[in-house]
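Researcher: For the annotation table, I need C-alpha cells for Probable transcriptional regulatory protein GC097_19510. Please keep the output clean. Sequence:
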Amino acid sequence: MGRKWNNIKEKKASKDANTSRIYAKFGLEIYVAARKGEPDPEANRALKVVLERAKTYNVPKAIIDRAIDKAKGSSDEIYEELRYEGFGPNGSMVIVDALTNNVNRTAPAVRSAFSKSGGNMGVSGSVAYMFDATAVIGIEEKSMDDVMELLLEADVDIRDIVQEDEMVMVYADPEQFHAVQEAFKNAGITEFSIAEVTMLAQNNVSLPEDAQKQFDKLIDALEDLEDVQQVYHNVELED
C-alpha cells in the first residue's frame, strides 16, 4: 500500500504550489461543512476532518475563521456535493469531487476537461468501485514499531502501517480517522504531515510517456476548475 502515498504526496506538492487557489477551495469546503452541522468542530465531525486536513496545507487561521463565521450568518447560499467519474488516457480512472452552487455550470466544465484531454465521463459507479475511502495519517520522527505499539495499546483498528522514507503512514477505515488521531495526540504527537480521508485506488497503473503527459494535462484541467475540490486517480506517479 505504501506506493499509494507517492500519489498523495505528489498531489499535496502540486497543491502547495497553488496556495491562493487551494485556500479558496478550503474556505468553501469549511463553509459547507460548518453549514451542514454545528460550526463547532468538536460537535461536527465533518468539519473537524476538513480542519485537520487544512492544517497540513497550512491554511491561514484567518481564512478558516472567515469561513466558519460566514456559516454562522444568514447566508442562503446552497452548495451541492457532486461526484463525477471518468476515464483518462489508456483507460486510467479518475474521480472528481465538486462543491457547486450551479450544477449546470459544473457538469459541462468537468465533461469538457475530460474530452479535451483524451478522456471521457463515465456513469455513476463506473470507476468508484475500484477505489476505497481511506483515512490516511502520516507522522515523522517515530519508527514504524513505535507507531504500531502505540496504536495497539490504544486498541485502534487500522488497515496498514507503512514506512515511507522518514515518514510513517497509517491507513485505516474512514470511521477510525479520529480514533487514530486521538491515539497519537494522547501520546503527545500533535503535528501530522498528512491527515485526511481520501480515495485510494485498489490497483495503480503506469502510463507510457505520451499518455502520462496527456493524463497530467487532464488532472491539471480538472483541478483548475473553480467547483472541483478533489481529484483522485489510479495512475502510478514516478518517484
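Researcher: And a one-line annotation?
Model: The chain has a mean pLDDT of 89.
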